[in-house]
Design a protein that fits this description.
Length: 462
């Protein structure tokens, strides 16, 4: 539940994150019984996800990383198309033109793929995933599959994707032959771009392939490994989390657990739950320590119980994050460039927030897919600097994408080793009153070790 809510509520919305927010919801009913209201919510979310993906599709039929980009993202196109094919199979309406254009794009890339020496591991794995999605869509490109199969040094994850592709077209024996040289030992890693990969994501791909090839004993061992990771407090990206949930849902859709049965008493209200799903949940009315909860296990196996609470710090109590791997400095300036204190501003004053982000070189790599989140008090209005005639905004650093909303601005960018970027947001102190200025937060979307934040504070417009 915690992991599913994370991918649904994640505030950023590139092609990967948009897909990750809805993909696991296709199969959440394999994990738990959903009441009518929850089922309706899941259905709405999936339909909204399909609609939003239309914004990413470009002229060649692929999907861009951000809405409005003109070029397709290879892995994002695989992933989004994978979701659309499975959504259609689950009965959701996917526009035929949208799906057919994507299939044409995938087939063209599959047929034109050639060995790349500079980025072979990614390129070959990307091609294998592409071939798997086409097989899933009922449009396999057999010649491209056979050509990739004959590659001398096929990367490990490419083998697992390609084996799945063969299994999907009914050739499980070839799939098992491909895995004869594959390894089950997935090394720990995180990828900031390209395929947004991690060890958890790769294990999930392996588990799904095992399911297709009827490798029941090994798949159960891996299932426990993935389940342990998702049940831990470890941080995982949206891509890793979604894939982990997908793999577990896929497993339980095909392998029903023993019946879940228990009696409960929560704050004096009693009941019994019986289910053929591995997870059941009850919503508690209040989040304090005065509740009385009793559980009696009536199942044949062990029952694991946990209480999950969520929330956010009270205004002013959140702690700043100062990470050696990322430096961030936030200042406020008037239109002449002089630093000002934003805690007391006269009504009508124009000023701007300036954020400098530094990659100090501690990890010796370019930080890709960085996200800067700036949420402003409701008494301040945000100006669109791209439409401003104020010269001070003409030297902003480049960014990949910027999302300007009523009360916040999301800026997405990359920053090279030993380099910095600076972003400015035009503001106006519009409405008198006392307001809270939340923390400014910057993170690598695919590596939680790279992050920094300020401390929030109260401000006034006089």
């Amino acid at each position: 539940g915690k992991r599913l809510e994370y991918v649904i509520r994640y505030p950023h919305g590139c092609i990967e994150q948009t897909t990750s927010s809805v993909f696991p919801q296709l199969y959440v009913d394999a994990l738990m019984d959903l009441n009518t209201a929850k089922q309706a919510e899941v259905t709405r979310n999936i339909k909204a996800g399909i609609e939003r993906l239309k914004l990413f599709q470009v002229g060649d039929g692929g999907f861009a990383y951000w809405p409005g980009n003109s070029h397709s993202d290879a892995w994002g196109s695989n992933y989004a198309g994978h979701f659309l094919v499975e959504a259609k199979a689950k009965g959701f309406v996917v526009p035929e033109l949208m799906l057919n254009n994507w299939i044409g794009f995938q087939i063209n890339l599959a047929n034109s793929w050639r060995t790349s020496t500079s980025s072979y591991n990614f390129s070959a794995t990307d091609q294998a995933y592409r071939l798997k999605t086409l097989a899933l869509a009922g449009k396999p490109v057999n010649s491209a599959m056979n050509r990739l199969r004959k590659e001398a040094n096929l990367p490990n994850m490419a083998r697992w994707h390609l084996a799945a592709a063969y299994a999907l077209i009914g050739k499980k024996d070839i799939g098992k032959q491909i895995l004869a040289e594959a390894t089950y030992d997935i090394k720990d890693y995180r990828e900031l771009a390209y395929s947004y990969g991690s060890s958890l994501r790769d294990k999930a791909v392996v588990l799904q392939t095992m399911q297709l090839l009827d490798m029941k004993t090994k798949s159960f061992i891996l299932l426990k490994d993935i389940s342990k990771s998702l049940s831990s407090h470890s941080w995982y990206s949206t891509h890793s989390t979604a894939y982990g949930l997908l793999a577990i849902s896929d497993y339980y859709a095909k392998n029903k657990p023993s019946q879940l049965k228990y009696a409960y008493k929560i704050n004096g209200q009693s009941g019994t739950t019986t289910s053929d799903k591995p997870i059941a949940s009850h919503e508690l009315a209040k989040a304090d320590n005065s509740q009385s909860i009793s559980i009696i296990n009536k199942s044949d196996g062990d029952l694991f119980v946990r209480i999950i609470r969520k929330g956010k710090p009270k205004a002013g109590e959140e702690q700043p994050i100062r990470d050696i791997d990322l430096k961030m400095n936030v200042v406020y300036k008037n239109l002449d460039g002089a630093t000002i204190n934003p805690q007391k501003l006269p009504r009508g004053k124009d000023f701007y927030a300036e954020v400098q982000i530094v990659n100090p070189g501690t990890k010796f790599r370019t930080y890709e897919n960085m996200a800067l989140t700036q949420i402003f008090p409701s008494g301040w209005e945000i100006g669109n600097s791209r439409m401003s005639e104020v010269e001070v905004f003409s030297n902003d650093s480049d960014f990949d994408y910027q999302d300007i909303r009523d009360d916040r601005v999301f800026t997405y960018f990359s920053v090279s080793t030993y380099s910095s970027v600076t972003y400015r947001i035009l503001l106006n102190a519009a409405y008198p009153g006392k307001y809270y200025l939340p923390a400014t937060y910057c993170e690598a979307m695919y590596d939680n070790d790279i992050r920094a934040s300020t401390k929030g504070k109260w401000v006034a417009v006089e």
